[in-house]
Amino acid sequence: MSLIEMTEEVREALAAGRPVVALESTIITHGMPWPQNLEMARRVEEVIRAGGAVPATIAVLDGRLHAGLTEAQLEALAQTKDAAKLSRADLAACMATGGTGATTVAATMIGAARAGIEVFATGGIGGVHRGAEQSFDISADLEELGQTAVTVVGAGAKAILDLPKTLEVLETRGVPVIACGQDGFPAFWSRESGLPAPLRMDKPAEIAAAHLMRADLEIPGGQFVANPIPEDAEIAKSEMDPVIAQALAEAEAEGIAGKAVTPYLLQRIFELTEGRSLDANIALVLNNARLAAEIAVEIAAARAKRL
Ligand code: PSU
Ligand code: MN
Fold it and tell me: pTM for this structure?
């Protein structure tokens, strides 16, 4: 039995060198409420197909690592209340014990790399949490970007994190952080964080060329493409800052720690913005899927030319 179960569509596309874009599943089970999570997951797949690539949502179902889910599997996962949240530390344990779990950015990168998928679209990556100098809470996503060769497209990182420290750790791990179409590093719901991005590229072909150049140089690790939320969907930083401050204070008062931190904050911010954070989140994920498909198309075209 193979390690990864792929849908026929994904398997054929990979075998033929056609573009494929991986998608994570924690955003479905822990990042958004039902039923918007399922609607988002379906629309993201449509956007990737419209962009000329094949979507491959990654998740562990009954111990099997999947790349590409059927409509029924996607719907079942979106309704699951007790799916585990899997990162590098727990992926193999979940598979070994026959469990069901959603993959974070880190675990999705591992699944994508094993399947042979080079591009992955998500909402935002995990990072260094505020107060990490006390809590040591730094997402395994950053370590994974440092060692697994997948180009990840996200709308920056959320201001619930310590963004300057997150950029520092990415630099230390050798991860190129490339803002697409602007100089500033985007902050998820807002187009600007107030921090400059280390790199800027405006064309998917440039991002694809940099991805291939890293492979040629045999530099392990991925790239992070920071794609700003579309203007008409953004929530201004000035509006988000107090909401984030309140959610963080509540998380601390309730003693939320470990894996529970990110889902707790997302849910509280959803409530405090009366759902507007979710609308913005969906818009930015779709926008990231669009760009990821373009990058995957460029990588596939460049690889085909080399043959
Ligand atoms: N950012 C989002 N939505 C999410 C997540 C991040 O906008 O759902 C999820 C991703 O799966 C990411 C994970 O990999 O949270 C990071 O969790 P932690 O901070 O526990 O590493
Ligand atoms: Mn954490």
Answer: 0.97
